[in-house]
Amino acid sequence: MKNYSILLLFILCFNSSLFAELLKVSPQKGESVYSLLTRYNLTYEKNIDFFLKQNQNKISEQKGLYLGKEYELPIKIVKFNNKNIRSTLNIDYETAKKIQEYNSIVVKKGLKKSSYKDDQILWVPFIEYDLNNDINKKENEKNVAKDIFLRNNFKKNNDLFGEKYKINSVLDNKLAGHYFYLISGHGGPDPGAIGFRNGFELHEHQYAYDISLRLAKKLMESGAEVFLIVQDDEDEISDEKFLKKSGTEKLINGDTISSVQSIRLKQRTDLVNEIFRTYNKKETNHLLIEIHVDSRITDKRIDIFFYHQPESEKGKEFCEALLNTIKEKYDKNQPGRGYQGRIFGRNLWTLRNAIPTGVYVELGNIQNPQDQIRLIEPSNRQAIANWLYKGILQAYNIK
């Protein structure tokens, strides 16, 4: 776990160190491409080709700019190493001096609020100062590191599944280019909701985790990249009815899960967002799924239901696809049973603060004897994972 954690931390930190992202700005009223570049002290002839290519979907046929839209400038936002510009960027003294002067100018013009020595952020106009080759080198190094991480992530997930359920080969590539962030609710010091059956305690986080592992396996078998944000080296996919209490879960980067709820929620969401920033690019799809088990009065049976962020149309669409799939499965496998699952918009921390579209899945009432069967039977846990997988395919219109 230690080496894996170090590698992940390297990946997550990379974007916040050298050449993290492009500066995004909005044009002023009546501003042209020329005047925008000039306002940021960028030579039009040097930077125009990059600007047009980078922002090609936001420029009119007459090369006009739209108010209210953000445009990426050929300026990299770089974390200053608190020593000097030369060592931060690994460049020569003369170029470092030019970048220092540039950063002084943009502060004086009011384009940047603070000096790089105060906020630890450098603006680097890389084309202006012929640093493009250096950036390409950094990008290549970053891509190699990302590839290494993904290979190790696959291996780590496979180890978490246990020997019996390891993936021997990817079955298809239906979900290639899709990235999933799976969070099993609670964990570590927080067992979540607790039910009782035949003298055993049923802990929410254990059953949510088992189903998360099963879903992760299904997604990976179709070529998806899956990040299990909560992990437990001591547990694996289990064929037992009564899952042992552990509390040994940690986060994907090896950090201990906080006992303070607000910190715990932020820990997980921050990790999701950091990984998203690393792998988000054109023609990729990203979805966050958080799995819980509800807790209500004992005689209340609850079918699987879903939450999405109220303002998220995509989140709602995913919930509808998952709900419709589960309803179809119940109608086919248990005719006449009926399915009362519902979808709710709810302003939950993770849904509100995570960058990728997110959905919450509530698997039932852990205190209700009938709902408990849905959780304790291994075949039922596998069925839930299968159905969620099918719903995801439906949401993406994949056959």
Give a written overview of the molecule.
The strands form four sheets. A six-stranded mixed β-sheet has the order 7-4-10-13-11-12, sandwiched between helices. The chain has 399 residues and is an alpha/beta fold. It has helices at 2-14, 33-39, 44-54, 85-89, 93-108, 116-119, 132-161, 204-221, 261-279, 313-333, 349-353, 369-376, 378-395, and strands spanning 21-25, 71-79, 121-124, 178-184, 194-197, 200-203, 225-228, 230-231, 250-251, 285-294, 305-308, 343-345, 357-365. The chain starts with a helix and ends with a helix. The protein contains 13 helices and 13 strands. Helix 1 (2-14) runs antiparallel to helix 7 (132-161), helix 2 (33-39) crosses helix 3 (44-54) and helix 8 (204-221) packs across helix 13 (378-395). Helix 10 links the parallel strand 11 (305-308) and strand 12. It folds into two domains: 2-135, no CATH class; 143-395, Zn-dependent exopeptidases (Aminopeptidase).
What topology emerges from the helices and strands here?
Blueprint: H1 2-14, E1 21-25, H2 33-39, H3 44-54, E2 71-79, H4 85-89, H5 93-108, H6 116-119, E3 121-124, H7 132-161, E4 178-184, E5 194-197, E6 200-203, H8 204-221, E7 225-228, E8 230-231, E9 250-251, H9 261-279, E10 285-294, E11 305-308, H10 313-333, E12 343-345, H11 349-353, E13 357-365, H12 369-376, H13 378-395
Parallel strand pairs: 4-7, 4-10, 10-13, 11-12
Antiparallel strand pairs: 1-2, 2-3, 5-6, 8-9, 11-13
